[in-house]
Amino acid sequence: MTTPADVHDVRDPELPGRLLTIERDELVPLLRSRKDEDFALPVAACPRWTVRDVLAHCSAALIRVVERRFEKGVFSPECNDRDIAERAGWTNARVVDELERGMTEAGPVIARAGGVLDAVALGEWVHAGDVRVAFGEPGAYAGRGLPEALALLAAVTRARGHVPLHADLDDVDEPLKLGEASGERPPGRFIGDAATLVRLYAGRPVNGGAGYELAGVEAAELNIFGD
Q1: Backbone angles phi, psi at 41, to 5 degrees
Q2: 41-72 core/surface letters (b: 16 or more CB in 10 A; e: else)
Q3: Domain Mycothiol-dependent maleylpyruvate isomerase metal-binding, which positions (predicted)?
Q4: What is the 3 state secondary structure string of 82-128?
Q5: Mean pLDDT over residues 5-21, rounded?
Q6: Which run of H or of E encompasses 218?
Q7: Radius of gyration of the chain (CA)
Q8: In whole angstroms, what is the distance from residue 189 CA to residue 46 CA?
Q9: Whole-model pTM?
């Protein structure tokens, strides 16, 4: 697997939609193959939430993007809880149907938004990894969408002026540059596998057996989804 060594400053507006489409084709069949009781499994990365809650949150967020409903407080914890509660009476199949629609239709809207919604697509992909962990499925925070996810992670961290980091990834041919590149702070260095890098940026627990090296930056500084 390869990914570009440098993500150029020019935004690729189609990248978030490509990631959503790839993940839709991987995740939705998996969800449709699971029993209803699997949707009640707890999700370790999202305390108090079950698999169903995570999926309801994901589908609601994407439909908000599709329908351009961005009222005050959108995507806040309180808003997320309301979105989940609104779907409490739905069947699991209906939640998955809405998620499939959102992953299909949100890409063009995100593309036209100029970058402000790019992180939504990345968050959806990370939550798909959370669900895989809850199911005990392989490929969490990896899989077919990983090259697009890494490229989008680099773009989002650059746009946010995030702490600079050079990542030498065991399972990717070329190094990845993340965060701002002003030169005001020397870049940190990461050596390890790509899924562990994603876990660190998403604030997810790192597998006990996953060896990695991190220098010049604290792990907590990498989290892009924290408060």
Answers
A1: -65, 140
A2: bebebbeebbbbbbbbbbbbbbbbbbeeeeee
A3: 22-105
A4: HHHHHCCCCCHHHHHHHHHHHHHHHHHHHHHCCCCCHHHHHHHHHHH
A5: 82
A6: none
A7: 17
A8: 28
A9: 0.93
